[in-house]
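Residues and backbone
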Amino acid sequence: MKNTILILTLFAGIVTAKAQFTYRVINKHVSGSSAEFELIGYGYVKNTGTVKDTFVWKLNKSMVLNGWGSTLCDKNLCYDTAIYSSSFELEAGDSGVLNLYIYPNKIAGSGGLGITIHKLSDSSNAIKDTIYYDTWTVGVEHFEAESSILLYPNPAGNRLYVEHKNLKPGQVKIFNVLGQLQQVISYDATKNGIDVSILSSGVYTLSYTDEAGKTVFKKFQKL
């Protein structure tokens, strides 16, 4: 048994050493008005190896809303929206930005922009990640909705209640601090409260989208 554990530990160390880079996302979930020119997901890659290396990135635009523009800026360039992949070099120990951009073009909705990164010499040890974006339509209705929506109790125990003065049918989504979708529920069903007992303790973002596509975001804490 001891020999087996030793072999597995050494194998895991080899995999880590072969990768020799890290990728960190600063803001996993980005939200803003659809009238904004751009929304930015900030990230960077670090060469943890001992020699200069070339890193390749590739965008996955399958979750980008129809009508949105999307692109990336690395340490060298900001690319045209038609570009899906490129590469750059990093000296040993250096870091370089990899910022993911969405251009809403006045289109409200939710989507994501994925990225895959690997060394030019080793595509088998790739890192994949996604930054999620939410945009809303600016208008009187949006600000009325934002001021009238109420979450209680906050902090929440096992159930969270949503109140809105117009009580229009819609959809509620709950995201964790990494921007990962945790729950989706119809607005009508929230009259009896949302069962949040499955959520771990922490801070979450609730989005409410009405039939017209207008979205409001509210944060709450789960005990």
Summary: The CA atoms of residues 205 and 219 lie 4 Å apart. The longest strand covers residues 122-136.
